[in-house]
Request: fold
Amino acid sequence: MEVMGRAVMLGIMAAAWVWLATPALAQEPGEGQGPFSVTPLVISEKGKPRDIIKSALTLTNLTNQRVDVYVAVRDFDPAVGERSAPVASSSAVAAESLARWIEITRGVITLEPRESLQVPYLVHINLRAKPGRYYATLVFGAGASRKNAFSEGAHTVRALMAVEVADDAVARLQLDTFTPESPVFSGDTATFTFALKNVGNRAVVPRGEIRIYNRRGQEVASLPANSAAQALPPSGMQQWAAVWDAQGRFGKYKALLDLTYGQTGTVQDTIYFWVFPWKEVLVGIALLLILIISTTYVLHLRATYAVGTPQEAPGAVPREETAVPPATAPLSGTVARSSAPAARDAATGGRRGEARRRSACASAMQREKSYVVQVPKKKT
Reply:
């Protein structure tokens, strides 16, 4: 495409040169040759806005007499032809007029007989010039004054200049900050902010995402960055935010900022953060403590009521041993009861109570009270 564009430009310049040079040749006196010549007749330049192009033309006196030459610069449209440089000084007009960009002497140029002279010129490409091709003609006329030099019938020579303005768009973003709202998140959401600065000369729209990875390197979430497609103007700075639903998450995570802009521009950065839901953790610790205490208490009860030596259960009412008061001396006229049956009854009751106690310890469910009756020996 670039080669084709250059071929088209050269074709236009050649046709314009023929169109411009034919009248001049027809006006040349003598043997088809004028009093002076200009080289080159076709000038091709290339640059970017704000560039300054420096070059020169060569004027040659073809006679044995002194010649005064004047220069005029006019815009040229391949579809229309020559047109005078606009007088208006608005920035829009100046950005489109190549004649306004060309700086060359407007005074008289004196050529001595057979003298060749370098005539320098500058091309100040307008800073607001749009990419494209611009044309202008440099008209050289010989005469005693500027008016005579460009009057009808005067000898003039035209040089066609074409300037190709390249696109100098610079799309460049600079990352200012990319940080989490907190190094440790304890709630249900995690917020990230990033700020960009446009250090180029064109407005750009950053697009991309923030990807979240766990400790194993697995992607667990993807957050859109600049989902509203907000443009960042030149020299501007803007901050964006993204929120991640961290409910049910725990541990260390990585956030990767991945942005693109323009044709090939990229911005990347990485940060690390923690998710620690302390409320849920405290509830879990409390439940674990309750489970440990309950298990310990149950094991203690089982050890206490294990089958073996009878032991009193915690909180049980202590046994009461009731002693039979000693027999008093019988009153006169009364007969003391024999103590043998009472002793037998006491022994029988003791054996039955011991059996009940052993049964209660084995089942660990209940305890029967037993009473031990101590019968004092009969005094002789």
Q: What stands out?
A: The helical segments are 2-27, 91-96, 98-101, 146-149, 278-304, 340-363. Residues 173-278 form a domain with the Immunoglobulin-like fold (CATH 2.60.40.3880).
